[in-house]
Amino acid sequence: MFVNPAPLATYEVEASATRRLESARRAAMDKMMVAIDAVHDLEVKLNIKQTWTEDDPEYQDAAWYLQHRDFHHALDCVQQLVVQRLFEMSKANIAGIGNLFLPFFLNVLLLSLSRLQNVYINLEGLEATRQDDTCGPGQVQ
């Protein structure tokens, strides 16, 4: 009687794959348990009696902040560049002269155009995601 060796090889390959997946699952469970223990220890140290749920206003405010922090960071970069240019104008004693030196100020801004363009590109991408998001503080999509 002839026995086909292919089904045995297929079974061994599938059994090996199953053992690898099971090992990965156990490792992930171990990592999860370590993380849960770390969170529990931190809650005990900080004397946190109740953990946040998605319905808590503090959770919703924190989630809104996390969704918008990149946009605010890009705005901070733009503000930093403008303040930097104002300090440079102050060092050149032209900060209080007003509209007479507006073209000069624009030229100074154009010198740092590459930095401003990078910030603008970041702002464009973040603005597109922000316009899709109609939530305000205290609301989570």
Please give a structural write-up.
The chain is an all-alpha fold. It folds into 2 domains: 51 residues; 76 residues. The protein contains 4 helices and no strands. It is elongated, with a radius of gyration of 29 Å. The chain starts with 5 loop residues before the first helix and ends in a 9-residue tail after the last helix.
Strand content: under 5%
- What is the terminal separation in angstroms? 66 Å
Summed up, the helix count is: 4
The helix-strand sequence is HHHH
| Overall residue-averaged pLDDT value | 77
Determine the structural class based on helices, strands and strand pairing: mainly alpha
Question: Secondary-structure map with pairings?
Answer:
Layout: H1 6-45, H2 57-91, H3 102-111, H4 113-132
Helix pairs in contact: 2-4
For the structure shown, list the relevant keywords.
mainly alpha; 74% helix; single chain; 141 residues; 2 domains
